């Protein structure tokens, strides 16, 4: 009796993309495939009776399994004696096919008989007669087989008990070939064809804690002999039901196949008949090659002393060869276990289960050891490629390094996004910046830890035609040491920020704007090409603050000055928008977003209202910066208004023509009336004036 299944932990990595590590290339691996799949390495396994699993039999088997009335009847019957069970099965089987009768027997046993773990581990199996197994409702394999044959005999159905060897619980720890049989199952005859029945493994499995998991597995109801031989070797060769029986040495060296391997129609290309793997000559990894149906997805683990090796495995799908290449890289000498898992279907739902196990015995480490990042299925689907860093899953930050950068190539229709989290799985706010470098045709993924410790840099992707649903594709670990204080952080940037070649001059390396306790507003400075227009707003609780922002161009510094005035304390959102000035059809789009945490606010204020022409012509207000003027006060007006032919003001609806405008500078004093003060300018050949700035009066 052994473990058929082992459930996949959260550390398992789903990885299906060639990252070209260790200096290898596909041609190298193709040569390995040709060598490892040569006929001399292949043990042919063919059933002795190819007509046994004919279409009619296969259909009968599946119909019996799918028959809900059979299941309900078996699940509801509660016999109090073996004789009563026999009578119930005889009555229920009357008039039914032999296949149905076998299903009724098999299903009752696997539903009602528990495996006797204590007897198995102690080696004291005791009485395993059908009567005792029924009464205790538990037994070891010989007890299951005895009960199965007893019920078949009562129905006058031909059945044999088979003794042999099974790759069950702790089989992988065996050093030498077994000298005594350790397992029992059945063979039955139907219409002059022999079939196998394995009710012990059909009832469940022992987990890693040596606890029996009662989980009926219908695969063992007539398993095919050419599959069964991978984990069950009869003592009598005739019960292999194969054309050419295999020997004990061949059986022991075969990989450890699980039932799901066959259910998913997976084919092991290489190594075909080898349980113990070696590193590829001249490489830092071992290789397993599989042919997998398109709707089947794989995961892998490399373990040493039952501990998953981080970065120890990945799987890549070779579209040209239609082969999944599974790479396993050890970190030191030792005896490793290789686990492969699979599931069918494209959804994230469903559990990966064991399909195949190997042993990797590393007695001497290669000079250059490698490791792999964690990669998900869509990494391959989106045709992504990691350019840097190579040959590692762990990025080390020390000696004053403030951030790490991961470079990824992608098709033009794929977008990436990043996410940095600490050891407690908490997001590091402002810890990432991901954008596409169109000059280099590469994605730049920057990650900045906020303290010493271990972090995960997760990269997600989606096709740009899809809804805004990013899925995980690749992740690296970052080990941060001696991070400078304060640590850097990134504001959230849209791709347009980088496409327009914008650069943040202040605040640098911060995701939050700087706030002074005695201030009324904060400032962001951005460098932009001449053809770019910027705008901005400030939001509190996702509501825009009216006249709470001012976007203007500082003509002396040649920078855009973006000012933000909160109305209250608390966390605010500062948004910057941009577009090309000569693109009349385009609207202003978001390019960068900062946070602003206001803990103290002495004097809230409002900015003057500015119109679109103010930003297009790159105007600037020196004074007054406060948008609310006091009625009757004397106020100096000082603005930069480049390129205007004429500048006018209205005060109390009276027009002040071009007074104080010289050399692109408007500078004069006004006495504030009771109505809005508006500044206009006329450009080029236009006969009309455009509104630029409006102050309100209180």
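-> sequence recovered:
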């Amino acid at each position: 009796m052994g473990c058929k299944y082992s459930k996949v932990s959260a550390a398992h990595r789903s990885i299906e993309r060639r990252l070209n590590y260790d200096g290898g290339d596909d041609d190298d691996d193709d040569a390995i495939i040709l060598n490892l799949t040569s006929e001399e390495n292949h043990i042919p396994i063919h059933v002795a009776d190819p007509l046994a699993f004919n279409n009619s039999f296969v259909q009968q088997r599946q119909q019996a399994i799918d028959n809900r009335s059979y299941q309900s009847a078996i699940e509801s019957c509660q016999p109090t004696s073996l004789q009563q069970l026999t009578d119930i099965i005889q009555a229920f089987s009357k008039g039914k096919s032999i296949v149905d009768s076998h299903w009724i027997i098999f299903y009752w046993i696997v539903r009602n008989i528990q495996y006797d773990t204590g007897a198995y581990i102690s080696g004291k199996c005791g009485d395993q007669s059908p009567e005792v197994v029924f009464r205790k409702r538990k037994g070891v394999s010989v007890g299951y087989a005895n009960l199965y044959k007893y019920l078949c005999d009562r129905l006058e159905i031909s059945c044999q008990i088979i003794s042999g060897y099974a790759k069950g619980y702790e089989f992988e720890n065996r050093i030498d070939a077994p000298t005594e049989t350790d397992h029992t199952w059945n063979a039955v005859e139907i219409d002059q064809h022999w079939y196998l029945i394995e009710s012990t493994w059909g009832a469940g499995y022992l987990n890693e804690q040596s606890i029996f998991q009662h989980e009926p597995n219908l695969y063992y109801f007539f398993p095919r002999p050419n599959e069964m031989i991978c984990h069950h070797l009869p003592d009598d060769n005739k019960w292999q039901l194969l054309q050419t029986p295999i020997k004990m040495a061949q059986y022991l060296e075969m990989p450890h196949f699980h039932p799901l391997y066959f259910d998913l129609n997976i084919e092991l290309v290489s190594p075909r008949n080898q349980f113990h793997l070696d590193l590829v000559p001249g490489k830092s990894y071992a290789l397993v090659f599989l042919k997998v149906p398109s709707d089947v997805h794989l995961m892998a683990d490399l373990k040493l002393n039952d501990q998953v090796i981080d970065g120890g495995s990945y799987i890549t799908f070779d579209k040209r060869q239609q082969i999944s290449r599974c790479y396993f890289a050890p970190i030191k000498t030792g005896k490793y276990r290789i686990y492969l898992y699979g599931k069918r279907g494209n959804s994230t739902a469903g559990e990966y289960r064991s399909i195949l196990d190997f042993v990797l015995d590393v007695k001497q480490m290669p000079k250059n050891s490698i490791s792999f990042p964690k990669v998900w299925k869509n990494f391959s689907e989106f045709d992504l490629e990691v350019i840097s860093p190579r040959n590692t899953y762990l990025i080390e930050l020390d000696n004053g390094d403030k951030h790490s950068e991961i470079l990824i190539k992608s098709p033009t229709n794929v977008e990436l996004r990043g996410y940095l989290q600490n050891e407690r799985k908490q997001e590091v706010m402002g810890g990432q910046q991901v954008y596409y470098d169109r000059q280099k045709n590469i994605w730049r993924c920057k990650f900045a830890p906020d303290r010493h410790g271990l972090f995960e840099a997760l990269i997600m992707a989606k096709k740009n035609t899809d809804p805004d649903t990013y899925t995980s594709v690749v992740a690296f670990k970052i080990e941060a040491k001696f991070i400078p204080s304060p640590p850097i952080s990134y504001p959230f940037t849209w791709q347009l920020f980088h496409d327009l070649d914008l650069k943040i001059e202040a605040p640098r390396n911060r995701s939050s704007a700087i706030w002074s306790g005695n201030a009324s507003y904060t400032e962001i400075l951005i460098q932009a090409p001449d053809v770019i227009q910027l705008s901005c707003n400030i939001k509190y609780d996702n509501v825009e603050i009216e006249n709470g922002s001012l976007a203007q161009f500082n003509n002396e510094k040649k920078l855009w000055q973006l000012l933000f005035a909160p109305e209250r304390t608390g966390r605010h959102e500062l948004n910057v928008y941009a577009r090309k000035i000569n693109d009349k059809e385009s609207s202003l789009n978001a390019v960068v977003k900062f946070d602003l945490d206001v803990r103290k606010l002495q004097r809230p204020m409002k900015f003057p209202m500015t119109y679109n022409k103010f930003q297009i012509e790159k105007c600037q207000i020196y004074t007054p910066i406060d948008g609310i003027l006091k009625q009757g006060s004397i106020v100096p007006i000082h603005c930069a208004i480049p390129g205007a032919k004429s500048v006018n003001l209205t005060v109390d609806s009276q027009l002040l023509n071009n007074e104080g405008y010289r050399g692109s500078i408007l500078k004069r004093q006004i006495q504030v009336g009771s109505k809005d003060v508006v500044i206009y300018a006329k450009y080029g050949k236009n006969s009309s004036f455009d509104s630029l700035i409006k102050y309100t009066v209180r």
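Confidence is low (pLDDT under 50) at residues 2-25.
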